[in-house]
Structures
1.
Amino acid sequence: MDLTGARWRKSTRSGNDAGACVEVADNLPGRVHVRDSKDPAGGVLTFTPQAWRAFVTATAGR
């Protein structure tokens, strides 16, 4: 998977500490990528924009 050009941003739901944070890159066409901010060279989850919206909607406020 070519993530060249991905602009990663920290989730607004992540805390200010160095703990459990995720980063999201939603600037590449047709996909939303999610990774652990503590391990940026590790695995990346990839979603369609529709699946990502459904996930965010389902978990909002939790």
2.
Amino acid sequence: MIDSAPKDELLTAAECAARIGLTVRALRVYERHRLLAPKRTEKGWRLYGAAEIARLHEILALKQLGLSLSRIAALLEGRANDLDRALAIQEAALSALRSRAERGYSLVAAARARLRAGDVLSVTELVTLAKEAHMTESSFDAIAQRRYEQARPRKPIEIDPAALEKYVGHYKSEVGFVWDVSLKNDKLYFKNPGWPVANYALPEGEHQFFFPRWPSQVTFGVSPEGAVESLTYHSGGFENVAHRIDAAEAEREAAILAHRIRNKIPNPGSEELLRRVIASLQSGNVDFTQFIDSLSARLQLGFSVVFEELAAKGAVQTLAFRGVGPVGGDVYDVKFENENTEWRIGLAPDGLIRFLFWRSMP
């Protein structure tokens, strides 16, 4: 029988370096940091196959985010190659770069057209143009770095169940919702208004826990005296901090939300705000400072897709308030020229938009 399995092509260090655009010295440095372990011939010559080059790709992706070699080594220690995750990081970074470049190009082109027509740009327009035309990618690199860290495999540790008691309680997020942390069957369970059920997390450190069902974690903030003061939720490359509140405040927050839902009370000004946001997303002239940081970053990362999708819907014909959702967002039926949609907009205590999403309706 003929073996049809593909043979692993092996490259010498010089061939590997030349093809990828590195130096042999760089390969040696990665090897000294125990990031690479190439195969060896009987005479000791190093050989690089598919597995080694996949790991090298992962190293370069993390290095591109600004991580030190020691930090990369800590992230990759004991882990099998994960080329897909490395490619996902690069895909997100390239998508952000393309989206922001397209947005900057459209703004510059529009500004030049107005100047040719004899118009004068306002100070606000010039500031926006300067910011968008000279943007950096450091913040998006940080998001990709955190996403990679949050997605790495995790192992639970043994912890005294009695030590979990101190985490039980209520924590109010900086963007307005309340986390409830409870203890059941020697496990910590977490619940917020956006989750239909509570979900448990396992300990990976003294104050660090991870959710086994998806790549998210919680870190508790503890004072020097040992008092638990906050929790930070790590997910999707972002972090959200919630500060501890007492049971009475948690009950008040729940009562306020229940009252708004029951009586269909929108946040003041949310209708006009939603109209402005939709118009800005369709025109491409968006003030991203009106969103919380994580939402602003998400919109900028995928702006080219958002712009194309909303532009295809046509002009807004009607916009009608329907009620309040389970996490406090105002729900609107928005009829475009070409499509009927449902929108939900949620506001943080400081007035910034904390979430915004839409879906098609019949």
3.
Amino acid sequence: MDIHGETAFVTGGSVGIGRRISLELASHGITVVVADLEESARQETVAEIEAAGGSATETHLDLTDPESVSAAIETARDQVGQLDILVNNAGIAGPTAPIEDVSLEEWDETLSVNLRGPFLCTKAVLEEMKNREYGRIINISSASGKRVVPERSPYTSSKAGILGLTRTAAAEGGPHGVTANAICPGSVEGPRIEAVIDKEAVTSEKSREQIVAEKEGKTLTHSFVTPKDVAQTVSYLCSDAADRITGQALNVSGGKVTY
């Protein structure tokens, strides 16, 4: 695949899916700005990219703080110049509880990270991309943003909101050479799904093994998605093969969601 852009800003780019996305884009010759909270994790990811022959830098990013978002974008521009690709990956799982037991603080925190943060990042780069008549915006939503998931109201609401943001960015950027797409992963192997399983085990009184079997059984492949699956889809959407793909919500779910 030929990826036109030269630079990418990846939120949550040093852990989990984000780390895999950073490594994947760097393997295609993209200079990656790893934007995340933990300095040591950012530095480790940059070192891994450089050890593999890629190019990367890092910056602190707190998506709950608008000033931090602005500062991170400006730092990235100082480090690598224009930003060709934005990957809004960072997110939190939020609480696992019935709506009546979700606190306002939990709701606000989840929406702040998962929806307001991507809005702020998109707002910070879209005008520049439109002026250059090139850009790729990839938002990591979730299969849970498309389907019914009891006791996950903040998370599912935020991920459904990402789909609306994606379509609007696609409509506004389309005439100017900017595409915007969302990826909707199913359950992805890693610490986040492990934490969700642990919470469900407490609230449902089921064993972890039962919960894992149920979640895998809801897919057509009877397996969880891997971070690599998501990262390779990001690369595809950034490539010339996807020049006419925009405003879409692509499922990477092993068939957990088929619409």
